[in-house]
Amino acid sequence: MIDHTIKLFVIFLLISCQSNATDNSLPKAKAGKMLITEGIFQNHTFIKLDGEWDFYYQKLLNAEEIKKNELTLEKDTLILPGFWNEIKREGKVYSPQSYSTFHLHLTLPKSFIHGQFSFYIPHAFTTYRMYLNDVLISENGTVGSSEIETREYWLPKIVFFTPTTEEIEIILQVANYKSLNAGFRQSIEFGTQESMIRKKQVRLALDIFLIASLFVISLYHFMLYLLKKNDQSLLYFSLYSFVSMVYKFTSGEFFLLILFPDFEWRWLIKIFFLSVYLTFPFFLSFIGKVFPNEIGNKPNYIFQFIFFSFSLFVLFSESTWIEETLFPAEIMMLFCCIYVIWILSKAVINKRENAAGFLLGFLFLFITALNDILFEKNIIKTEVYGPLGTFVLFFSQSFFLSKKYSKLYTTVEKQKLELEQTVSLKENIYRANILSKRMELELYKKTIQPHFLMNSLSAIRYWVSESAEKSAEILDSLVGELRIILKVASKQLIPIGEEIKLCKYHIGVMKLRTEKEYRFRTFGIDPKEEFPPLIFHTLIENAFTHEDSIKAKLSFIILKKNIKKEEKFFSVYCFIVYNHCKSNEPEASKSGSGTGLEYVRLRLEESYSGKWSLQHGKSKKGYRVLIQIQIH
């Protein structure tokens, strides 16, 4: 990137040298007359009508009036491009707020007669009428002899014409009551229709390209800022790009007037100056965010205050006063540019990332801007290179900002990949853990079920010898229970109605085994809701193992309730074993490591990983288990 910028420097210098050489080789107007030869025109696609034009102060004349009163009219000469208020001759002072007439006698080769030619006429300060052999061919605004009669307008134009004679009288009537300068800042050009159309198209294309580029750059960095609001350099660069785009809208080919022909001249001037003055605060803010260790707060705040003050003055002042700010503002711009160069030089010395590219890009813009200021003041005769400098600066800075965020994006992608690998590893560990838990669960099932089956078969054996009827009843209950266990044991979730039916079968088996009455009730249970299998069945089996005795009178209750805690919803299941014969109050316990409870925990973890809790312990007359499951 640095190599490219250096090359652009060289190209700029070569173009400047070439422009000076071309100016010396082309014909110049002298004493209001200019001769164009066929040989000179063949070497150039267009010729600037620069040089000494006849100048008639405070007169609006036509060709006939000039010819008739040639001896009596007070005439002076003015070098175009130039301003009549800059004429410094003894005893002559010309006010810019006035009107005048410019006259040039142009001699063409005979071969040009009946050819197709054109003039490129830049905007005048602040309006003009152009006559060719006393025929009006172009008009910008309304030329008047007073401020009331005059309507300001700026728009470069191409005018086509076909010469019928070798001699051409060009008359320009110019009026100005708003600007501090009166006349033409740029050259009036003569050439073929084809060359002028091509030149106009190139200029328009360049303006459109710069406007579109600055708009895209501004929008792109603003969107980046919205995504990454902690980096304010993106916001300031976006604003900096936007005001630069507005500057291009109100200068060059005046694209704003092409889009809106009736746009008020006063606001055109205000917007133009605002776009110039606001550029520096936004650029300083951008530099301050990119190189915070190099910029000083005090000079930064001083420059910010000065340029914002200029901007406020422009916003609320008339056009004449607005232009009065230009000279002091240009001085402050010069100091501000030197300050920015000093900041960027410090950044280069401190080896900040991309500092050298920023410095070279800004130096290029600084040189082109300095060239344009000197050109506008008629100190040098080159061309307007500001758009080229602006493009180089924005391209370089956008490139380095993009490079910075490209590195950031690469880092994020790398971190994302590492995170995905970590998540994948955690998922594999989790799956391995679940697989281990399932194997452990199967082991517990194989431990619990044979124990229950062995006790039940012993009871059947007893009743076979005592009562065939009761042995058949217990055998039916056992078969029903085992059928359900076989059906649901391998499933992760089943309808809770199947679990309740299983519990009833088991209580029926125990009732026949012990010849005792047991009560079993449920509250708030929806038979269709899903729940892990064998949870309550295991808890009931535990209750018979630990709570039942000869004198015990057990009853079983299962309750279910939905609750909300801290914006989360839970289903709470309460399993209670109530012994009606207990009178003492044993100590409550929330710990336990029995086989049955381990089985319950594994079942819950398999179905609701990390979203469940279990509490258990003895109550006043029995035993209670509380299961809480997060559902939302």
From TrEMBL:
Domain of life: Bacteria
Name this polypeptide is given: Histidine kinase
A Pfam family reported for this protein in Swiss-Prot or TrEMBL: His_kinase
Species this chain originates from: Leptospira soteropolitanensis
InterPro entries with a match to the protein in the record: 7TMR_DISM_rcpt_extracell_dom1, Bact_2-comp_sensor_kinase, Galactose-bd-like_sf, Sig_transdc_His_kin_internal
Record flagged with keyword Transmembrane: yes
TM annotation in the entry: 204-227, 234-261, 267-288, 300-319, 325-344, 356-373, 385-402
GO molecular function: kinase activity
Keyword line: Kinase, Membrane, Transferase, Transmembrane, Transmembrane helix
Ranges of residues in domain Signal transduction histidine kinase internal region: 439-516
Residue ranges of every copy of the 7TM-DISM receptor extracellular domain listed in the record: 206-402
